[in-house]
């Protein structure tokens, strides 16, 4: 069959003859044959043989760099994208001017932004990615136009570039892309807004907590803890009713981050406001998520704020699990976490606690801090004090980091010495 007609290449594809297709990709004099060979290689499943797979990618990269025909180069770029998107970074480096050897002539251009207007979307995609690597905020106006490109790959790369550059001018356009018809673009927009991280960018993420796409909701909810104020609390509370367990778990962690990020002079105010917001609705889902988070090996801010919050919202739901979680926290190496657990256990005031506390006291050595804490809780549970009395009987220090607590302890010790 004549090489003028590329249909014979599809027979090679049906027989998975990748290496034969490579011969036509690299050796044919006809652009249509090279174009179709690249296109077909992009659609074939990659070989299980590592050497063959690398050979195909190297050939496609050479074609993308050095073929004299724009359409063939574009087809090779598309094939690389389909087979191994990470390999595109080598071409992105070419366009960003980072390559030292083997730089193709077409990459030696004055303005990378010019490629955002190229006929082939594959070139526009590379240009958008390269502009992100160059990190030039002068490219933002051109990138923002590319965020609405007809090709989703171009939109995705342009959006990622905007996130990398981090220019606040991108926020409104990225917020619009949260409603893009492509899930891939929606995810990229949410991640870019999170990367920019300004107040406006984070506020733009709040509507994304109601996205139809789980991954977008996870990204949006996961970033709201960076606020350190009450702005996102309602959105986080709503997320505890999300149908996705991953979203609910992410919302719980974000709420704890929000408490940890609160300015020290507003910590008490924000804690009380969060507590009030939560206790007006059904907290069963949040209680479940907090128990799950605290049952692992979380960082101190999760243990501290999670234990405090659990004590505030725990009700009849998951009672046994809550008790077990709080009893474990009596042994926490962080003193504040342990004190929050003591307060929470007393406030729960469950008679079933007495026997569990007695077993814990019996099994702990006399010098154990855990034993002393359990004895304190047992004494208060037996006497059933009011909530106010409990709060006053346990040193309730609102801090955001251990240094604050250490400072306050030193101040108290100094006061006692002066009496």
UniProtKB/TrEMBL annotation:
A Pfam family assignment: HEAT_2
Coiled coil regions in record: none
Superkingdom, taxonomy of origin: Archaea
Gene3D superfamilies membership: Leucine-rich Repeat Variant
Record field: transmembrane: none
GO molecular-function terms, A-Z: oxidoreductase activity
InterPro entries xrefs: ARM-like, ARM-type_fold, PBS_lyase_HEAT
Full protein name: HEAT repeat domain-containing protein
Organism: Natrialba swarupiae
Lineage: Archaea, Methanobacteriati, Methanobacteriota, Stenosarchaea group, Halobacteria
